[in-house]
Write a structure and sequence with these properties.
The protein is mainly α. The protein has one domain.
Length: 82
Amino acid sequence: MSAIAYVPVQQALEHIKALSGDAETRRLAFVRERALHDEISELRAEREKGKLEGQREGLETALARLIQSGMSENQARQLLGL
């Protein structure tokens, strides 16, 4: 990138170099990056929790419908893999 002659790009690169030399700026960047990773992990965990809850509700609904249609609870559970 240092071979780019466009002045605004060169100025931005110089600014980045100056910032990266500052220990506090590097620490803050690290803390921000860690916070973003934590947030992504939390969102993934909540999404997985939601999927599992949806599957459970779906199985409960299917079980109730099978029982209502006349199937025994044991047969319905076996059919659904419960």
